[in-house]
Amino acid sequence: NAGVTQTPKFRILKIGQSMTLQCTQDMNHNYMYWYRQDPGMGLKLIYYSVGAGITDKGEVPNGYNVSRSTTEDFPLRLELAAPSQTSVYFCASSYLAGEAYEQYFGPGTRLTVT
Amino acid sequence: GDSVTQMEGPVTLSEEAFLTINCTYTATGYPSLFWYVQYPGEGLQLLLKATKADDKGSNKGFEATYRKETTSFHLEKGSVQVSDSAVYFCALHPGQAGTALIFGKGTTLSVSS
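Above: the input entities. Below: the structure tokens describing the complete assembly.
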């Protein structure tokens, strides 16, 4: 099992450019999430999905879009990059392990917008 | 809404010192509680969990007990090592399927030899 994989690891964008952050999990988990991590601020939820074809907004969705056409993949799209989107992005998936929903994280994508 | 508060860092300790990182939570239902660890340049890894009151989660010498009466889930380790240097996140899951974790802001631990 590779777990949760993310590409790319690093990216520098110019203001106004667009890009897609890729996320794939091979654990057949229904639930998937995108978070961003800013220094000293913990993790904030951008979007989540409870299954293929179903997505919903989290705490900070503005400037992002997602899709979930398969159980395995949950890409995050930035359409018009802004400096405020400079952050580290983590994808996660979860399942019910006994009595608790455990989340597993990818290694992250470090994005800089200049 | 539900929330998690953990102690501000950084925490700086010498090797073999005792570690406590405080975490308190606010929740309307019956959450599960977690500690995650993030080593430099890596993603978050699940360290331990507890699913109901008085449960004790433990892993790699770390422990935390789910205290409903004080709404706390403090992380402890009796003797820290340099390799424990990392950022530690306390988190709760409200319990509903598909709901995301709610994280504290993280506490940086630095252990010197």
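Note for the figure: The CA atoms of residues 12 and 59 of chain B lie 21 Å apart.
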